[in-house]
Fold these 2 entries.
Entry 1:
Amino acid sequence: MIVQKITHCTDSLLTQEMAQIHLEECQVAVTWFTNQHNKQSVVHSHPYHEIVLPVSGSDVQYSFLGNLYTLHPGEMVFFPAEIYHAGRYTVTDTVSDRLVVQISTGIWDMAIRRSGLSEPQWQKNIVILNAHAVSTWDLRGLLERMVQIPHIRKDCQEIILSSELIELQLFINQLVEDQNTELPASSCTSTLVSTAVEYIRDHYTDPGLTAAFLAKYTFTSREHLSRAFKEYTMESIHDYIKNLRMQNCRREIAAGRSVLEACTNSGFTNYSSFLKSFRTLHGMTPMQYRAKLKAMGTPKKD
């Protein structure tokens, strides 16, 4: 299947592994998410590009490298693959409705080559397009048209999908060049937190990485860093590090390593505490998680 549409997910946050499974069977997945009770994601990354368009309800906040972006309904954000970010979905209302499109890097890169854009710089970073531009160019309609591809003759599907992706890329490129990008007034940046986040991303498997160490590294007090970190990333330093380690651990387990190896390689030092945290976060033990991946037919590779 070239395009997969998940009709409607309510209070559901796809893990990285689940998302990878969807994209193994297709090249584009279009999902309508509604969040009410499940209000915030943990810090995570995806092996594919992601486009998010809040449709109605609450503003949405995304944290990325010490930057906190507020996305209003009608605005659209592009996340390149492997970018760590976290989201809060009920900022100004009790319900958030979002259109989310996940695009495999393979077909995206093929479309870029055919578009003649020659690896534009904007695709390496987060891009936010303002609501006026999204509406004027009917980008929501373009994303929703991708869902119709499975109903087209199979010998035409890849050509049409490639054409629609090229159209999307050319629109984004022109809007970026015309400065129709949006960094809302409520968005803010912290150099201090950016420095801390970048260090964490590069060293989270180091078992000696702690909030106290980061405070020394950034030449500030632990209390000040902890307050600023929570404000700009929506998570505590401890939870941020734990979530990155846990994501790495899941990758290690999926790659076929033992649970103890995955635990140690990810920076956890207390095996019993790790098992408890894993079960709390995922609702199952690491061995049950491995069995679930095996039942889904997930290949054991990074």
Note: DSSP finds twelve helices and ten strands in the chain.
Entry 2:
Amino acid sequence: MSEEEVQEPEVLLENYGTTALPAASDAPIHCLTIIGQIEGHMILPQNNKTTKYEHLIPQLVAIEQDEKVKGVLIVLNTAGGDVESGLAIAEAIRGLSKPKVSIVMGGGHSIGVPIAVASDYSFIAPSATMTIHPVRLTGMVIGVPATMEYMERMQDRVVAFVTANSHIDEQTFRRLMLTVGELSQDIGTVIVGKKAVEYGLIDEVGSIHEAMHKLNALINEREAACHD
């Protein structure tokens, strides 16, 4: 057997577990995964599955600059995490000029909610869940009044971003956030699949096929507009 016959196939795998999808026609798509806990300024234990914002932000800058990338698919299965870092990721996704579609697979909890709605169009799998609850702080803090004010302002930022980038109204979102009796040790609401669409939080129930179809349609619309 010659060397050519035993060559390994090329694997389109890049840093941080991000996969470059094969081109469908002439529209290369970048797949961005948001999984586990979103790690912020504090390093989480090594046994935690994390998404590091200092890895994602440069990727998003590179996507914006890369003319070969025509669209972005954001796949979420996250338990939430650092609020400021999650908002930074959401703002960076929102600021991309490329067409972008998100899909919640498994879960898009807590600060994962703003990230899920930061795209041009959002999907949620039928069995996927999203948890909406107030902002929480962990660790030692100094100055209780200042901390409470910080939490309220951070919560307002989350509410403003979500309501500006989805079809849910502020009153409904805050009501879901402050619901008592649904979470055993907290206040808030767990939304499953189509309920997220009914509330206007997510655009459509679907899976990878529907998300890819929508993303390719957005890419084609953008290409057509550029040629007009």
Note: Residues 133 and 188 are 4 Å apart (CA to CA).
